[in-house]
Specification:
It contains 9 helices and 16 strands. It is of the alpha/beta class and 255 residues long. The protein has one domain (2-247): Spore Coat Polysaccharide Biosynthesis Protein SpsA, Chain A (Alpha-Beta Complex). β11 and β12 (170-175) form a beta hairpin. The longest helix has 12 residues, at 236-247. The protein is globular. The chain starts with a strand and ends in an 8-residue tail after the last helix. 40% of the residues are buried.
Length: 255
């Protein structure tokens, strides 16, 4: 199964870190946050990734182009430029990086990678700006059991996020910026049928608005409830929270 990572946003709310790099490349414990996300998926056997690039996407591309060297010990003869790899511990990842437009919205980015998932029965999708210990195996099994077009992971942090009204695991309403507290919210970690992408009209479509609304109005969007760790990284303060978890020696998103 493939996992699609939305990594193209401007990251304006954490501009202290994103002036020269995309949010997906903000470091947590000396590693880009996208590395932590891929590692989490990989512990559940998900190793085929599609990264939707946008703002400063070249930084992401350069990182993965040089990933082999970054993760190796080697000797280099500076006179001949010959290299000898001394030690390498490979990650079993296949990473496809696609330019989905600098200013495309979340739905537009998904639409642009349709050709890479259109033959699949389902695929995973999440955002490159947060970490969680959501159980990917249980999420997939939940999705396959209910046989609807889409599953979203519901979590319960602060109310600044889009809120989900849930009844019998069906999503019956989606509020982009709710005022109420203690409601379930969109935590990312979707499982989607490629048919969902037919609901996206173009680059300016926000996935969390019209397509989501259409899915729950058709009773095709189910919520997988996750009551474990989940933390976004929208601000420098939240980045520092994740850094403290990492420095504790036992970050909760690591299996």
């Amino acid at each position: 199964m493939k996992a699609v990572i939305l990594a193209g946003g401007l990251g304006t709310r954490i501009s202290e870190e994103t002036q020269y790099k995309p949010k997906a490349m903000v470091m947590i414990g000396g590693k880009p946050i996208i590395w932590h996300i891929l590692q989490h998926f990989s512990t559940y056997g998900i190793n085929d990734f599609i990264i939707c690039c946008g703002y400063k996407g070249h930084v992401l591309k350069e990182y993965f182009l040089n990933y082999f060297i970054y993760t190796s010990d080697f000797t280099i003869d500076l006179k001949t430029n010959k290299k000898k790899i001394l030690n390498h511990k490979p990650d079993p990842w296949k990473v496809t990086l696609i330019d989905t437009g600098e200013f495309s919205q979340t739905g537009g980015r998904l639409k642009r990678i349709k050709e890479f998932v259109k033959k699949d029965k389902e695929f995973l999708m999440t955002y490159a700006d947060g970490l969680s210990n959501v159980n990917i195996k249980k999420l997939i099994n939940f999705h396959r059991k209910h046989k609807k077009l889409a599953t979203v992971t519901a979590v319960s942090p602060p109310s600044k996020y889009g809120s989900l009204d849930i009844k019998d695991n069906f999503v019956i309403n989606f509020k982009e910026k709710p005022p109420e507290k203690n409601s379930s919210i969109n935590g990312g970690y979707f499982v989607l049928s490629p048919k969902c992408l037919d609901l996206i009209s173009g680059d300016n479509t926000i996935w969390e608005q019209q397509p989501i609304t259409e899915l729950f109005s058709r009773r095709q969007l189910m919520a997988y409830n996750h009551d474990g760790f989940w933390q976004s990284m929208d601000t420098l303060r939240e980045k520092n929270i994740l850094e403290k978890f990492w420095n504790s020696g036992n970050p909760p998103w690591r299996k």
